[in-house]
Every structure is written in structure tokens, then in C-alpha cells.
Batch of 3 targets.
Target 1
Amino acid sequence: MPIFFNVLPPSEALLLLLSHVRPRVQAETLPTVEALDRVTVAPLAAPHPLPTFRRGTMDGYAVRAADTYGATGSLPAFLQVVGEVAMGRPPNVTLSPGQAAIIHTGGALPETADAVVQVENTQPVGDGEIEVVKAVAAGENVIQVGEDVATGEEILPAGHWLRPQDLGGLLALGITEVPVARKPRVALIATGDEVIPPDQEAGPGQVRDINSYTTAAQTLRAGGEPLLYGIIPDDLPALEAAAARAMAEADLLVFSAGSSVSVRDATALVIAGLGEPGILFHGVAIRPGKPTIGAIADGKPAIGLPGNPVSAMNLFDLLVVPTIHRLLDCHNPPQHSVVRARVARNVAATPGREDRVPAKLVRRDGELWAEPVFGKSNLIYTLVHADGTFVVPLDAAGVTAGEWVEVRLF
Amino acid sequence: MPIFFNVLPPSEALLLLLSHVRPRVQAETLPTVEALDRVTVAPLAAPHPLPTFRRGTMDGYAVRAADTYGATGSLPAFLQVVGEVAMGRPPNVTLSPGQAAIIHTGGALPETADAVVQVENTQPVGDGEIEVVKAVAAGENVIQVGEDVATGEEILPAGHWLRPQDLGGLLALGITEVPVARKPRVALIATGDEVIPPDQEAGPGQVRDINSYTTAAQTLRAGGEPLLYGIIPDDLPALEAAAARAMAEADLLVFSAGSSVSVRDATALVIAGLGEPGILFHGVAIRPGKPTIGAIADGKPAIGLPGNPVSAMNLFDLLVVPTIHRLLDCHNPPQHSVVRARVARNVAATPGREDRVPAKLVRRDGELWAEPVFGKSNLIYTLVHADGTFVVPLDAAGVTAGEWVEVRLF
């Protein structure tokens, strides 16, 4: 079977892949207080209005606004204080014309009151009377019932990544459980005869597996559940068996291929044989990370990442993270922070290939500079020493020192 | 005891608070694979070089570079192929002058080889011989021992927030356990007679506690451990008892005050009485969130947040998140993503106060616009409907439609 080599620009590779990915959203119900960074599966509606009662927004006096009309410092309105609104209780006061009640921020407005006069605009004058030196309009300093949300209003759409304030919004309405998407299960399969587990002593010619763990961490941050399949030797039946298990257990398969030609070929063969339509592209015009495979097998995305750890992280970020978000059907996934900085030195690049350059951010003379971290692209410490990466676009021959770039922190 | 009111601009309030916060870093040792988003407590050094052996970076032939000098397409060098480097094994070939060995990307260079010729620059010519059509320099296509990191080199400083690539860097060196800072314990104390737990039916005048949960989520994101103390009624001894417990158990105390004057006064009294030097500021020139207290009590920061949920989140973000990072002694904490956008309509503001305006991001004609989400500042759904906030600076009277602002996503 021929391994076709069909190299696409990064944005096209991503679009082609995503065009085949259907959301696979199974719901599970979680306590709202544990649903941070999970994704809703259905729109949620308000079971009751918020607030449920008319609330004052100032410390002062609940009044009938009409009683204050025309009031000024030189011609104040005089009102009789007939009570105080207790916090957390139904209002126990009713105002007749010419009457007021003490109210605290957040307190419930008495039934016949329709505004709050700030305490600063009043003056006690003895005998339980106050003078009001500034008129208020009806509704002033009051939150109306349903002003935050009305009953039945959609409060969150489906596919919403839950942030701290979203949990607050749900709990404010007494929604203490929320159906969220099960985390997409991402099978992480490492291959290569030279690769050993990190807790083993590396003999000559051996390197420790780090791709399983860097991509597991990336999976967690993207909202997925990593399933580690360990290190599969450079052996077609063993790879096929691991892939078959992953097809049964996971929503998304990620291979990080060993370095040798034979294991790369074996990985490509296995990916091609997983199901229809098979391989969509084999090669992405990006550095580092060119020898990457994108495939769809019977509806499941399968990505073959290069073995070198920087390429693997780079292409995971480009292709797998958006795929996880698509599986979650999420419209507002978390984004990398982006910082504008000036490039500290010239960076050469090859047109026709997008370069992702690791860079350290340095503040100099009040300006932010991106110092490229040079080093062969497969050295993990180029990424450890970097704060992020910037892109030299496909059609550029490089970036000149002093040019502005956007550094994506990661 | 007088409650002094000492309002500071936001940046000054933060600086004053942080100037009193000492890192409180207790170490705990975690498996490296579980240390994502934790913070190192000491610099870490490489126990051995990386890589540990000379590795080829191309598929091709390991050679003695001198044998290829002067080789061109018209005048190739001829080399005898004497073996193949097996992946993951010590090199089992030694090259004499005029000899080459097949090598795969990542393979170990034979001892007397010093370069790799890419397969594309070779041609088999029969009898186990190849011609080399392009000379290589010594060291070409080779990663030297220690080129990624040298033995003893500092690989991570103290106070480093561990990202996916950092875990990879540690595991590549066989560092499978890492000492990290224990998460700072953040006591979250809600107060107010009108506040009830979220799973209860809210009667007239009652509102559900959401500050405990929004700030718990913010604590988690900032790398802290939230300790929820529940809702304390508006009662000085009860507040004092909760605060004493928090002083004993937590590294940082956060009160979210109820709405009424009396509970706000009681909270301020309790904070003032926790220890020396006491309250640093009482009031921050920011909207929403002005009535905020910053204090230090016997070395522990104590923050009194306003009761309204938007203010509470806003000031938590401004003051508490950096305090958690300072307690962790972290130099690279995660940052909010920032997006530049044009303001979709005029926003008025009061000079002398920093405004944080919730906004929704909308793409229009290829440009990103920030639509302010209007609403009274204590409505939690203004934040739920927003993608982030932008700042109207202290000295500005507003922002004009079309102006560029930086929207912090949260």
C-alpha cells in the first residue's frame, strides 16, 4: 500500500481535518460547584427571575418617588421614617404617602416604595423625620425583578466552556447540577524502539518517552481526558493491536511516531488502515512538525505526530487542541495568551513553510522584546527556556530585528 | 474603634498590599506527571547531559566528514556501507576511513563518525557502496552530547509555574519527582443575613451565596486551594470566630461582606483586629469594587471584598490573584488572554476612578469589536454575557466608539 505524501499549509490541514470532525457529545451531570472548565451540552434557561424581589442598590431610604419631586437643598421634602427593612426578610413595612423606610444595599423594597434615596442626600431632622435634598425618579437606585435575568431566558448556550462567573450565574438561580459534555478521551500512543519510560535509566541509544506526558498535559488543558497507551515497539501487529484498542476506547487517537523510517512507515500504515476515509494529509508545511498525518477513521480523528518532542507539542497545539474543542462542540474554548513584542534579532525562514519560533520575553527600555531561543528544533529545552512562540508566516522569508510579532504564551 | 477610609488607586493598592506579602512556600514532593500547574520551590539542575549520546537528526548515513570533503554531483565521494545503526541500542559499528553506516533520525552515531549525510544527498551504486554528492562538515546533522542541556546546568529556576513542556524537560532527564510549593490555602468567608446557600429556596429578601464559589474557582485557577467557611451571619462574635479559625488554617483570608452597613462595619472591625499592622487601605478607586479592604495581620494578607458578585470577582482578580502568586513566589504565573478590539459604542466614566467594563467580542467586517455589556454593576449576568473586561483608566472620562482597547478574557 503506498503511503501518499500530501503536504498542506497549516491552516488548510486544520480546516480539512475539522471539516470531518463531528461533535461527539455525551452528557454527564455534575454538581455545578465542580463544573469549572467543563462544557455545557444544552442551552440552560432561568427557572425564575433574578433578582426575585426589588432590591435597593444604595444605603438610604426607600421612598415613594413622587414624594421627593422638586426636592432640593433649599427646598427639601420632609418624610416620616416608619421602619427599617431587615436584611434577608420580606419587607415588613408599607409606605403611605409622606413616609420612608431605612434600607440597606441589597434590601427588599417595601411594596408601595418605588425608589431609594441615598443616605448622603438626606438629613435627620428629629422626631423620626428626615429631609430629602435631592429628588429621585421612580426606579432610581432599584434593581427590578428580573432585571438581571427573566424567567425562561437563555442564560447559557450549549457548548459553553464554564468559567468562574458562569458557575456563579447558575448558582444564583439555584441550579446546583449541570449537564456537561463528557471529556473527549484522547488515546496517546508512543512508538519507537529507542523510547523507554521516564523512570528507566537510559542506555546508549535510548531516550525517555516525554511525548506521552507533554501531550497528556496539553490534553488536560484542552478539556480532554488523556488515555496513555504506553510505548509500542516498532512492530506492525503490536501497533495495530494498540490502535484497535484505542479505536474501541477513545474518541480521538494520537500517535507520536518514533524516529526511524520503519516505525514512521508502520504508523502511517496503521493509521491508513483504521477506517474510512483514512488519511487526509500526510505532511504539514510547518517547522518544526512537518511529518504529521491527519486522518479520519470511521468518524474518529487520528493524528500521527512526529516523534521529536517540540514538533509533537507544536502540532498537537495546531491540530489536536481544536479537534478536542470540536468534539466538545465548544464555542468559547480558552485561548493562549498573546503578547505583542519586538523581535530581538533577525530570524531567517524558508518561504512556503510556517515557522514557529520559541522566544523568551524580555522587557528593555519599557518595551517588550522577543528573544528567539535558538537550538535544533527537536531540543525540548528550547521550549522550556521559552515563554511562548511566534509565527513566521508561510510566505515570509523571515523576520527582521525590531519587527513586531505576536508571541503566544504556552 | 474608628473605621478609617483610605481610598487608593488600584495599582497603588496592589503595590502596597504586595509590599507586605512574604512568600510562604512549604514544599511537597509530587510525581512529575502530576505536577502540571504547580510551582517549583528550588532551582533544578540536570543530573546528566541531554542527549546522553550523539544523535543523528536526519535519515541517511553516518560518515567521517573528512571523507566527503569536496564531494559534488559531478565529483561524488564513494563510501562503503558497513552496517546499520539499530534504534535504541549502542552503536554496533565502527567506521574506518572510507566507510559509512545507515542511520535513522535519532540514532546513535558510531564512535568514529562525526556527521550524517542526508539520504537525499546519496545514491546507492551497488556492491554496498554509495556515492555522496554533497559534502558535510564535522558535526553536521548531529546533536552533540549535552547540546540540549549540560550536566549540572540549571534547567528550571525556583518559583516556576510548570507547563506541559517543563514536565517533558524533567522527564527527559529521568526526574520523575519534583518538589513543588504546597498550594496556598485561601479562606473564603461569606457574610450577610440575606445570604443563603445555593441549594436553598430563596425567600423574599434572600439571595444565594455565589461569591464563595466564583472566588473558589478563581482561587483554583490562580494555583491556590480554596477553603470554604460558609456563610457567617451578621454577628460580631460569629465573624470573629470564623476569622480566628481562618487565621489558624489558611495562608490568606478573603471575606466577601454582606450588603448591609452593619455587616460591612463588622467585617472591617474583624479584619482590623486580626493582627498587626492591620488595615492598609479601605477603598479602591475602581468600579465596580470600591468598598474593598486590604490588610496584613501578623504576616497574613486579609482582603475584604464587596458583597456584590461582580465587584467581588473584579477585586479578587485585582488583589487576591497576585497575592496568591506572591505567596507561591512564582515568576511566571498564567496570564489572562488579552485581545485588542475596538469599542462598539461610547462609554462614559468618572475621572479619578478606574472602570472595568464587561464586553462581548464580535467580529464585524473582519475587525474585532468590543460591545460593552451594560447593566447595573452588581448583576452577575453582565459577566456571564461578557467575554472579558476592558479598563477605562483612572484619568479618562470615558472611551469613544471606535477606540482600541485591550479586552482581558476571563
Target 2
Amino acid sequence: MERGDLFVISAPSGAGKSTLCSMLIEKMEWLVFSVSHTTRPPRPGEVDGKDYFFVSEQEFEELVAEDAFLEWARVHGNFYGTHRARVMEQLSRGMDVILDIDVQGAKQVKSKLPGAVTIFILPPSWQALEERLLKRGSEDKEKIKTRLKNAMKEIEEVSNYHYCVVNDKLDEAFEELKAIVSAERSKTRRVLAGRIDITRLKPSPDSWFLS
Amino acid sequence: MERGDLFVISAPSGAGKSTLCSMLIEKMEWLVFSVSHTTRPPRPGEVDGKDYFFVSEQEFEELVAEDAFLEWARVHGNFYGTHRARVMEQLSRGMDVILDIDVQGAKQVKSKLPGAVTIFILPPSWQALEERLLKRGSEDKEKIKTRLKNAMKEIEEVSNYHYCVVNDKLDEAFEELKAIVSAERSKTRRVLAGRIDITRLKPSPDSWFLS
């Protein structure tokens, strides 16, 4: 049985990660999001179990105590975590799983699953990042400054990622991301475990070749 | 300066490698073939310097003596070789280079350039391979048997390749191959060496963020 791959995608706020990941999920039917657990309150329109599993701090702490998370972190004052058993179950069914997590979470996942493929999404420039965050208009300037401070630290980690996509033009960035995710499915290990039966690549006993 | 990647593509005769490689070169402008040297006589329509550099056995031996080849081999009674300096020069200009070579050549290249990305193209089944070779009709049955004997040995090496593309439907195989070659350009090392200036990803001294 072909085992799926785990893709860890990180990016500073404003790089366009959420948009790009949603586009990926929509176009590639074998690809699924890992839905994170979080203690942050839902934003308007967010659905429990689809966007996140929204849990209380107490529930979250219980899961941590059970070692149920592949990674977890406190970001901007809220807890986020990836449920390990859930991810492993999806991978074993041959699905590719996307983890949309920050740099610290990515480090935890890499230490636990060294085969994970890591992708960093970069804005085309610092200025573009500032502009995108300011344009959103949903947060006050102090919060944006906190995000930018985190962004600066995160961008320094880019060289620890396997792949890097610069999101200047969304369509081009999407094509690049799609190629990265598609290519992984052509790794020999995966093809031989799933799509082709190697015994069909030997002459059968009644083959003309052996006559 | 962004350095290109070397792709080593191998396949048994009849797997459709030449067609797929030609399609790649046509669609991806930064991708070039490494033109091999060979002592085999040109087939109708083949152009010297484009399909191969056609040389005499004596010329070939002189190049071998000069250690001019990244790899060379005798296949079906003829010599084939890849000119090392030529490939290195293309890579250093940021181009991706495709080496269309057999399993033995691939081993030599990997030992000299461990960063080479290796791709194996498989037919969907042994029967399909036999049928394709017989349908060509350009060779007698004994030659086809020799090719099939080589094919059997080559297919055994598939697990030494990074990627594996099953050429059942040509269009799908091409998409897979394209994704593999495209993804390599998104490796962080390449992106940071070429497409993005990391200094542009830090706030400038007059940035709002620092005020």
C-alpha cells in the first residue's frame, strides 16, 4: 500500500499561505489538510472540525499530557496543535497531508517525522509583506507589529526548509507549489509501493522474448 | 548566481524516454539536452551536434584518454559519452541539463556528481514493452531480443533512482516528469541563490515597522 507524504508548509503572516494551501486542496483530490486543534476563538465563518478543532485551554492541556500532538505551540497567545494519530491514519490510507504550521512546529515535526517535506512560502519583499498586513485592516497596528516581528524571525529559518516558493504572482506560486507536491508522488519508493506492480515488468513465462 | 540541476533520465528501449525528453525540452525553456558523443552511425534525419556528436572510434578513445567524459559506455556495440566540461558550463549558466543515458552511465554520473537528480521511466508492463519494440519494425528480431535482455537488467535498477515515471498515458507521464523537473527549481538552495535577494526580506531602515 502506497503511503502518503506529509508536507509542512510555513510562512510569515501575509505571505499568502492560506490562499495557496486552499487552492492546492481544491485541485488535488488526494491531498488533505491536517485540521489543527486550537484554543483561539473562531473567526466569523470558521467551522469547527473543518478550519480548526476549537477546544478550551483545559482540553488542550489534557491532549498535551496524553502526548497526543505531533507538534504544538503557543502563537500570538493561543495554543495550536496537530493530532498525531489523525495524521498517521491519513498517511497510511495513501493520502498526502498538509500541515500549515509555523517554524517552531515545523522543527518539532521534522524531529519526529524526518521524512516530512518542508516548504516555506516567502513574500516577494519585506515591503510587500507590510503592505499586505496593513491592507487586511482586521487588526490594530500593535498586533500587526507583533506579526511582523514574528515574520522577521521566521524568515531567518527559510534555509532549513527543503523548498521555497516566492509568492509574487499567485498563479505562478501556485504552479510551483503544485509541482513540489506532485513530484513527491513520483518518488520511486512511492511508485513501487503503489502504482506499479514490479512483477508485471518481467517477461511472463509465455512471452515471445523467452521463446 | 543560480546553478542549474543535472537530471539523469534512464529507461529501457521502448519506454518512451526520447519522446518524453523532447516534450520537456520543448516546453521548458531553461532546460537543455546534453548532446552525447557516439560512435554509432547517424539514423536517417539525425543531425550532428544536435542529436549526437558523431565521432569515430579513434576520436572517442582520445577523449576517453583525456578524461573528457562524465560517463561513457559501450551499448549495443557502440560507444556513447557525455562531455563533462560542456555539462558543467551549462549548469553554471543556470540551465538545467538532461542526460538521457543508460543505467551504467547513470551510476558513473552519480559517483561524480552526487547532486544529480535521477529519473527512471518505466513502461506500464513487460508486455507493453515487447509490443512497442516489435511495432517499431526498424530492427530484426535478434536485435530486439538484445534490447529486451538489456531492458530486463535495467528495470532491476529502478530502485536506485530518485524518481520513477510510469509511461502508460503519454500526457500523464509528461505531466509527472514536468513536475519533477519544475520542483527541483524550487529547492531552497536554488531560490536563495537566484530568484530572491534575501536582503529584500528584511525591513528597510525607513520601514513603518521600525518607527
Target 3
Amino acid sequence: MNNPQLNHRGELQHLLSIEGLPRDILLQILDIAESFCGVTEREVKKVPLLRGKSVFNLFFEPSTRTRTTFEIAAKRLSADVINLNIAASSQTKGESLLDTVANLSAMQADLFIVRHAQSGAPYLIARHVKPHEHVINAGDGRHAHPTKGLLDLYTIRHYKKEFTRLTVAVVGDILHSRVARSLIHGLTTLGAPEVRVIGPQTLIPAQVGALGVRVFHDMRAGLAGCDVVVMLRLQSERMRGALLPSAQEFNKHYGLSSEKLSLAKPDAIVMHPGPINRGVEIDSSVADGPHSVILPQVTFGIAVRMAVMSIIAGN
Amino acid sequence: MNNPQLNHRGELQHLLSIEGLPRDILLQILDIAESFCGVTEREVKKVPLLRGKSVFNLFFEPSTRTRTTFEIAAKRLSADVINLNIAASSQTKGESLLDTVANLSAMQADLFIVRHAQSGAPYLIARHVKPHEHVINAGDGRHAHPTKGLLDLYTIRHYKKEFTRLTVAVVGDILHSRVARSLIHGLTTLGAPEVRVIGPQTLIPAQVGALGVRVFHDMRAGLAGCDVVVMLRLQSERMRGALLPSAQEFNKHYGLSSEKLSLAKPDAIVMHPGPINRGVEIDSSVADGPHSVILPQVTFGIAVRMAVMSIIAGN
Amino acid sequence: MNNPQLNHRGELQHLLSIEGLPRDILLQILDIAESFCGVTEREVKKVPLLRGKSVFNLFFEPSTRTRTTFEIAAKRLSADVINLNIAASSQTKGESLLDTVANLSAMQADLFIVRHAQSGAPYLIARHVKPHEHVINAGDGRHAHPTKGLLDLYTIRHYKKEFTRLTVAVVGDILHSRVARSLIHGLTTLGAPEVRVIGPQTLIPAQVGALGVRVFHDMRAGLAGCDVVVMLRLQSERMRGALLPSAQEFNKHYGLSSEKLSLAKPDAIVMHPGPINRGVEIDSSVADGPHSVILPQVTFGIAVRMAVMSIIAGN
């Protein structure tokens, strides 16, 4: 009832996590994203749905790629975009997160895109902004990255048409992945009957069974008969303390090669959130091969972000 | 007569300092800012007054917050905004300030927003740009920060309607504050009968009496009967060499608590240029309390900057 | 025949180098740039030729000045501009150049402005983008910087009307200059009968004679009778290993003083790509004197970049 993402009429107010979003909201986002895919292929790729709106890219940790996707999506909706790299700014002057946001809000913001190293920061902000202001979580700690999950759902629906007969495998570093969490929730909500997670014991959270997934430590067994294979990035920059032996070792057991992929269904699609580590979690023959939909994911990601922005803040 | 801020018809050409601006120019800015407050509350917060104009945010020292306010104001006027962080740029290649500006000017600039660590830098630039180009000082050393002073004047007029019966206290680090200087000049010009400065001897310039203000070292005495209390940020990053004992000590004597504020008039307003140091120069109970107009100041600041830009460079 | 810059109809597809561009393409760019010079002098300096197009400023090495000229040119054509400083981004996550570009391309890019420390990087990118995407080289290693060469050609034509009777001298650090190379190719293509390079043996590439130029080590002899003098920046930040004795020594032999300039024709023009090192390669009396067209070069540079962008990516 008291869903922080929905307003009192049950409409999307903020996008903080796929967890807790009802099925019809998920489908609304995917449907509207589909209509924007046409826009982004036109010569003039602009629609005026956010004209005169102020979108703040509020990045408390740097991520050029994610910031760029939101910036493009907002500009194609005709918004004014302000990029704020906050690490280098007021935070160093000792100002609190909420004071920073209250200040930007006083500049008549409409939409905050928030990236923060701490889980829950976008929720905190969403609780304190004014009723006409909106928050999109662009990644908070290990918690969620809902637009990435949504673009994965969009991609799966685009290629597989529906969810209720699919077997989907998510492979790799589940433990540190905010994408995995978002995606698993979405797949469950949209009725995917079998979601598998594949990875070494050290990279799969103990409580993952509660999400309704099947756990595989043997990749070949896990891939057998899959319609969709979602590879995760091995975020070596996050892993200090040797949760895994080496990149070569990881590749041998959990890297996606053409040979391992042949165990999935013949028309399986391969996804990856990027940037890819070639030869670590995915071989080039797969990343660049006929099953890969990694680059279409990026294209759909723009449309999905345009959809979310226009639903929550559109004129 | 030879006012570097006015053209030969007595109109505003550059905004460099509140000092030296005639009363009617100050009132013109405040009146036009009032008309923009309506614009910024509309769904489409844009007017075409600077369409096709090139605004350069020329920041020789970083200030994300100030840069953001000018960027938003310019974009709401439909200008093209170019952000230049010059510390990391040509200056390191040994190019002089005037050569840098001459180059940007040759790119057909219309408006330079200048932030520089050295007092007087915006004046130097204003003397060398072409007749159709304009300069706004966004903070030069300890000298001036006129748009901040103007937004303070706007805020005071908004809540108190006029200036000629007001007692205004400016509290804290007067010595390092460019805001204080700008504000005191503006208040004097607009007829405020009593302006007080309150602070320890070490943070009040010796010659401050010449500005026509009353000096108080005892905060309670200084606050008595005030209509407006302007707290200054304790810029600890500027103070090396221990001009004051400690933040706690400062707070005890010159921090604004609810108890001290009760000595001012019952309808007194409390202002602060931000970002606030909670528990140092201002207690949270005051900053977030009913007398505080700190966040409205930010909102008015956008309108004031739109007003200045449109007066000097508008189509 | 297989020119990577032209499409199968012989039209400009990418701008990678002046070398290899046919005469009529060069003239087309200069003619269209001329029409844009009028636009940039209007009150509203915008035309809608790139409305809805996404221009990515892809800078793998920082250059605020060059990035700014492209950003302004793109915004005056009404494009959406995304600035990407890639050094601080995915490259550090180990992603390859082509993967980075493939990703941005998947966001529906129209135009990449590429600056890279390695010669040939823009060619590599141009070979891999989609047919409707375009690449402009904004400086690759020591190789080429074609828009700078084009603005030089534009400037020469503006002041001297044609090329076929001109003597042009290029002076200074030819070895490290991508501007020199581009310009020499352009001058040759457009029929300049005599191009001279002047500099110490250590700063002139051994094979420069193959470009059809005359080499002078004595500056006075080289300047005699010139119509156009192009001074190059002494890029001291590039020179480690003492190719030249000292800045003072360089100035004595190869710096342009009023006295040396008097050996050129009385109506000679003096050019420099900027930023200038006053007192090193050029004296202030010359840089700011009546023969200098250094600042007009900057203005023409915007028009030339608008021309190139609109030719290759315009609606």
C-alpha cells in the first residue's frame, strides 16, 4: 500500500527499484519504450515531452556511461540537463546529502537522476523532495539499478515476445550485481517460470533462493535449455580480498564460450550490461556472434529511460 | 560618471559589483526578477529571451553550486551554455587571462560569467571585451559576488516589502565574505536605515565603519530588534592561521540558536548564502525553522540571475 | 578510389585529414563556411540543420579549447551535444576503443568528434561506424587536425581572395605539428605555387621535401616576399629531450618580431593556431599588430566546423 514509488493514484512517481513495481506498471514502461524506439530512429530524434523541465544528473560516484544514457534520453525529450558531479562539490564542503538536494530542489528541479555508492540514498532523497519532483535511481551501492533491469526485460520481450515460457540464466558475479537483483524481480513479476543463477559459491548470496531462483554452480548444467543467457560483468575493481582465484580461472569455469553456449537453446539470446571484459566473463566469439544482443540492449536502454522519464515527469 | 558597469546611456552593461550601481538599476533588476518568478513555476520553464546567445561559464576556480545556478538561469532563457573549467585548461599552457578571453570572444560570445580567485579579474575582462559582449561577476576573490547580494535584496523585499524601516544584521565572517560587502552596499543604496555587522574582532575588517554600519561584537546586543538576520558561512577552508579558536567556540558566541534569535523581532527572517554548516554558524532548529528563508533565497537567486542576464544581453 | 573520407557518390562522409580531399570538396567546405559567417554575426546565432542529431565530443585526451569550438559549432546548428572525457571513463575499465564507440553508436549517435593521442584512431573508428554515422578528426597524435587546416585555408582565402599567386611560409616546430601537415596538403591542393617551411633542422621532418615545400633554416631568407606567415605554437609540453636550446634562443632565431616580419610583403598576414606563447614564437607587437589575423582565425574556425558538420550530417 505504502509504496514509495507510486503516488496515491497508483501511478509511477519515482523509479527506485523494480522490486515492488506492479506488473501493469512494468508493462506500461515497456510499451511506452516501444513507441520511443521509433523516435530514436528518425532523422530528428526529439519529442517535446520534457520541454522546459530541469533534469539533474546527480552523480555522487562517477559513471560516464550511465550518465550519458540518461543525458541523451533527457535531451531527446527536450529537457534541460544539468550534470552534477557531486564528489567534487558541496559534499566536500561538509554539506549533507539532503541539504544538497534541498538546494537543487529550490532551483525548481523536476527530475533527479541519482547515482550513489550507498544503498538506499535515492529512497532517502525521494522521501524528501516536493510532490512535483521525481527521482530515478541510476544505481545505489549493491542494491538496485532499475533502468538496467528494465532494458533487460525490454530486450527479452523484444526477442522472445513474452515471458511465460522462458528459461532465463543469469551468470557470474550475482553477489555484487545490482543488475541481477533488479532483473530477477522483474522476470518473476512478469511470469518467467524458471530463472537460474549460475556462479561460484563465493559470488552467489546465501539468501538468493528466497528470490525464487534455482542455483547452479556448474555452468554447463545451468545453461542447458535456456532461452536467455544474461552474463554479468566481473567487476574486478570491486573485488578486493580474492573471492575468486583469477580471471583465467573464472573464464574457464564461468566464462561464456561458443562451446558452452551450444548447450542453451539454438535460438538463445546472450545479454550483458557492458562494458564487457572480453576473454573473462565472455569470449569475443560470443560477444560479437549471432546470439549476442548486447548492442541492441544499449539502444533499447535509451528508449526505456525516455519512457520512464516521460511517464513520471512528462508534460 | 565613468562607471564600468553602465553604458553611455546609463544602462547596465556588465554586472561587476553592487557597489556603484544606482538605485533605479537595482530596482529594475528586482522588478524583472519578480516577473521571472512566475516563469520558473510554470510547467514549461523557458522563455526565448536569450535564444541563440552563447553564454560562457568561465570558472577559474571551481564552484559547482554557483555554476549550476547560472547554467539553469541561462538555459531557462534558452541560451546555449558552454561550461569552461579553466584551471584545467589553457591557463596551464601559459596563456594569459586576456588571451583566453579574447579567444572565446572571437567565437562570438555574448555573455561571460566569470569566477576568479583574484579580486578585480572580472573588471579586467570587462574592460577588454567588445561592445556587444557582457560580463557578470560570479565571485572574485574577497571582493564581490553581486548576484548573491541581489538575491538577498530580493528576498528581503519579498518578505518585508520595503527597506526604509528595516534593521538588518549581518553575522559572522565579514572579513572573508564577498556576500557581506555586496549586500551592505545594496542595503545602503536602497535606504535601509540600520545595518549592523556582528562578529569577533578578528573577522570584521577594521575599515567596516566607513560602509555606514554599526559594529557589534556581542551577538545578543546586535540581534535585538532586528527585522532581518543574515548569517554568513564560516568558510573554514579559507581560514588558515587560526583567526578563531574552534567551531564549537564560534557557535557558542556567534552561532544562531533559537534562543538568540528570540531577541530579534518576532517576524524576523533568517537568511544564509549556503551551504550551511549546521551546528557551527547556524543551528538546525533555526535553519529548518519558521523564520528561515534560506531555500526561498535559492529560488529567488535563479530569477535574479535570469533578470540580470536578460537585462544586459536579452534579445 | 577507396577514399575513407568519401562515400560511393564522392561526397564527404568523414573528415579525417585534408590529405586526400579533392579540390572541389575543399572549396565546398570553404564556400559553405562563408555562408555561416553571416549566421554567427546575427543576434540569434542558430540554424536548425542538425536539430535532433546527437553529436558526441569524444575526447581521449583533454583539449578544452578544441572541444569548445566543436561544442559551439554543434549547438549553433541546434544539435544535442554530449561531452565525453574518456580518459576518466570506460577506458580505465579496460574496454577497448572500438567497444566504447560501438556502445555510443548503439545510443543512436550521428556524429563523433574524435580527439586521440594515437595517430590513426579516428580512421579506425570511421571504419567501424554505421553508414549513417560520421567521424570528424579533432586531432590524432602528430598526424592531422583537418578543421584547423581548413580554417587556415579559409582565413587565407578571406584575406588574399585566391591561392594561385601566393607565397606562404610555415614557421617553427613542423615536426610535432599536425596543423602544419594539414595546411601544407590543403595549400598544395588549392594551387599555392610556393609553400615554405622555416625552422631548425631538429624540428623539420627529414622527408618534408616530398610534400613539395621549400625548406629554410634561416628565417629572414624564408620570410622574404611572403604573402602569408603561419607561425606554429612551440609545444614545449611535447618536447622532452631538448630538441632546442631554450625559449630565448628559439625566439632569437625563429620568433616573429616586427623587424623580421618587415621582410615579408607589406600586406602580409600573420596567422597562429593558438594559444600563443608571447615572446617565444611570436612577439606581442606582432600578435596584436595590424598584420595579425589570429583572432579572426578563431571566428572562422567556428564557421568552418559548422560547415563540415552540416555537410556530412545535416538534415
